[in-house]
Amino acid sequence: MKRKFFGTDGIRGLVNKGNMTPDMLLRMAQAAGRCFQKEDRHHLVVIGKDTRLSGYMVEPALTAGFISVGMDVVLVGPLPTPAVALLTRSLRADLGVMISASHNPYTDNGIKLFTPEGNKLSDAQELEIEQKILSFDSEYLASPDQLGRAKRLDDAPGRYIEFVKSTFPAGLRLDGLKIVVDCANGAAYKIAPMVLWELGAHIIPIGDDPNGKNINLDCGATSPGLMAKTVRTHNADIGIGLDGDADRLIVCDENGTVVEGDLLIGVIASLWKEKGQLKGNAVVSTIMSNMGLEKFLSHRGISLVRTAVGDRYVTEEMKRRGANVGGEPSGHIVFSDYGTTGDGLVAALQVLSLLVQSKKPASQILHPFALTPQITSNLKLKNKKLLQDPHLLKEIEKISRASQKQGDRLLVRPSGTEPVVRLMVEGPDKAQLEGTLKKVEKLLKDADLTHS
Question: Which of 297, 332, 365 is the last residue of a domain?
């Protein structure tokens, strides 16, 4: 069954429209609350958020919904998404909620939900919540004497900071390293600089002055230009870039050259195998991962296992295979030895530990292989159901097969977080890739005009 509200990573949309209105958010909280109440007792939900202006609207709407079905609420304020997953486990909560639209602009917001174990919900759990949203009954509401309560957890940031520091190899320090840390004016604007400073680094923070509207604005992991420029200006050793909810990481070396997620995954997995730390002899990533990563890992006897796009699919496959390294090219990197979801700060400390132990510049260790050229495009289509048309899918498949014969790879998929169709072509000949991309774009645009 196709999901109506949930996308690739939770529920997301334009604020005060569609799914992101106060009444819908309240109903979602009531439905989710009922789905995670398994016994006749008071239940607990942890709610965190990033720095978006709309958080002031979303947080109380969700709080009211959970309280109305008899759940107690712990509010932790602005914190990274992985911190919410951690606190959901450590507080023995029944549900965790992160209010964030991740890398999207401030005009969007969303909610990400976590199970008591700190995992993102399965497709089946999301469908169960959706069914309750669509068929919510007043019988689900708690009686006046069974309403929940809300309170704030003041030491939540400190708990997460100590956890993150504990993932850094014992006995190592960041003394002598000059690090630019771009917090994207998001959830980690206080925590990220503090973690790095407490481990001994000289830090140059940017994107650390949120005003509710500047999250991800020309900064952070999705816009690393400012980070790279700041690294060069200050002669820093490395740049660390997080996104709005700090669950992804993009790095740049001392020259300001950006190092994407696939390169970071490759260099860490390779080192972990050498040290006997890599479990399952495999790395789990998505269909978007670069062919260069697959070849690099293969030469080292490591399998690359691909999943659908979304770090929850990555973590589910990691769990099935017993793997402890996985992630996405976007910089969602999961280390299951430490956590249950992508964590930008934990990933950053793993990268920084490589610099400390190797005593080499970032440029010498963070470019272990050449990425195969990729060209991407995001198309806005009027007909949202276009990719369900069998005739169109058949034509796309013809182009895809022709690409494979040329040694290329073509992906066409609807975005789970934005109202666009994402296209990606990959292969050694850039001119050839551009031709394939234009052919698919024309096919989609013509079909969109015909069906609109």
Answer: 365
Q: From the candidates 54, 100, 102, 336, give the one annotated as an active-site residue.
A: 102
Lookup result for tokens 């972990």: 272
Residue-range definition of the domain harbouring residue 115:
11-154
Residue 421, pLDDT > 90, answer no
Q: Where are the alpha helices (DSSP H) in 199-343?
A: 225-233, 261-274, 291-298, 311-321
Q: How many residues does this entry show for the chain?
A: 452
Pick the closest to residue 31 from 1, 64, 65 (CA basis).
65
Please spell the DSSP secondary structure of 398-431, one letter per residue. HHHHHHHHTT-EEEEEE-SSSSSEEEEEE-S-HH
Mean pLDDT of 331-357: 96
Residues 342 and 410 both lie in one domain: no
Domain boundary among 124, 154, 184: 154
Number of domains in the chain: 3
| φ/ψ of residue 449, rounded to 5 | -65, -40
For the stretch 22-71, pLDDT in tens is 999 999 999 999 999 877 777 999 999 999 999 999 999 999 999 999 99
E strand or H helix at 274, and its extent?
helix 261-274
To the query of whether residue 298 is one of the catalytic residues in this protein, the response is no
Q: Could you tell me the CATH number of the domain that includes residue 80?
A: 3.40.120.10
Residue with the larger pLDDT of the pair 381 and 402? 402
